[in-house]
Structures are given as structure tokens and as C-alpha cells.
Description:
This protein has 73 residues and is an all-alpha fold. Helix content is 73%, strand content 0%.
Amino acid sequence: MLHLYETLGWWRRSAEAKRVHFAQEVNEFHHLLVMESLGGDRRWADRFFAQHAAIIYYWVLIALWLLSPTTAY
């Protein structure tokens, strides 16, 4: 969404969305660090499930964004 707005010249519309997106990125980064320190990345099955769940989640968000960009956030 942010890249599309910037490409179309609507970058001012995305200022608040950028702040929210950055805060979510920082939160996700710290969450991953905690999960790794607790051993959440040691077993193959855990990594396999996490990778495939992320792919499904990605496509669900794309579908939501096509319906309503604000809903995807």
C-alpha cells in the first residue's frame, strides 16, 4: 500500500500508515528475537509450519487489501 501511494504521488496520505507500519515492524522484530531465544526455531517441523503459515497469511492480506486497503492493516 505504501509503495503504491508513493508511486502515484500520494505520499502524504501514507505518512500515518508509515508510522504504524514501522511500529509493527519493530514489534515483530522483537517478537522473533524472543521466540528464537526460547528455542522456537530449532525443530524442522516448527520452521516448516511457520514458513507455510506466513505464505498463507501473506495471500490473505493481499486479498483483504484488494477489498479494502485499510482493512489489511
